[in-house]
Amino acid sequence: MKKYHPVIKVKGFATSQSVKLSEKTIAKTEKAGNFLTEIADVFLFILQIIREIFSRDFEFKEFFRQCFQVGYKSLPLVSVTGAIMGLVLTIQSRPVLVDFGAVTMLPGMVAISLIREMGPVITALICAGKIGSGMGAELGSMKVTEQIDAMEVSSTNPMRFLVVTRVLAATLMIPLLILYADALGILGCWVGANIKGDVSFALFFSQAFAHVHFMDLFPAVIKSFFFGAVIGLVGCYKGYNAGRGTESVGVAANSAVVLASLLVIIVDMIAVQITDMLL
Fold it and tell me: Which of these, 107, 234, 248, lies nearest to 171 by C-alpha position?
């Protein structure tokens, strides 16, 4: 036997339908409220970091340790990435330039491509995967095991010791890693040019840097600092505000990588638009 539930109509609308509409409205309102709350928490997190940067008791020892972790420990991955970038770009571009008889333009084209866009963006994405996930997982595990709460109880400022040092280390070291990757990319381009040709080291680099100007390097260096700051902020924020369960460590690391990579691309788009307007 089927049970039929009577539906009471009020002013032409079913009560059950109005209840469903109200539930959807409440759900959308809650999502919008959570999104705005998240944005407010991010701004408060950034303001707290800025305030702690200029405090008297700055953790220099921890800052240098984080610079070692962020910079030196990332050198092997960045080295391979930079060399392969230049090598692949050369191998892909050389046949087209040969058809047009413009092989001499290859060093300058690769150098400008690496310095302006490919070097900073690809290196920043690699660092977002390695450094951002590492920060999110490390701080998330400390949050789960209540080490951050223990630091607060013992009168140690966890924001100053854990977050500020990591954000500043990422902001300082990632631009250096990007410049290092650019140099290795140009060196990889020279190796790729000599696979099917014969170009001396001095001639290649003179042709490469003859086309590179100050305004090619300056905007790339400036935006690389923003890449480092974004990666450090996202990694620390996701880890510092992780949940209490063990699954939250993986969630913090995963969300840190995804959000940092997305923000790197957005920052690059904004930087390109600003550079285009200024030039």
Answer: 234
- Which residues fall within 8 angstroms of residue 225, CB to CB, at 6 or more apart? 171, 174, 175
Domain layout of the chain by residue ranges: 1-54, 59-278
Give per-residue pLDDT as tens, 2-11. Answer: 444 444 444 4
More confident residue, 151 or 185: 185
Q: Give the C-alpha distances (Å, rounded to integers) separating 186 from 15, 26, 233, 277.
A: 70, 56, 30, 28
The residues, ordered by sequence, that sit 6+ positions from 34 with a Cβ below 8 Å of its Cβ are none
The pTM assigned to this predicted structure is 0.85
Whether residue 141 contacts residue 245, with contact meaning beta carbons closer than 8 Å, is answered with no
| pLDDT given for residue 9 in this prediction | 46
Which residue type occupies 144?
Answer: V
According to DSSP H, which parts of the chain are helical? 15-53, 60-71, 75-99, 106-113, 119-127, 133-144, 147-153, 158, 165-193, 201-210, 214-240, 247-278
Nearest to 228 by CA among 159, 269, 175, 162: 175
Cα maximum dimension of the chain: 91
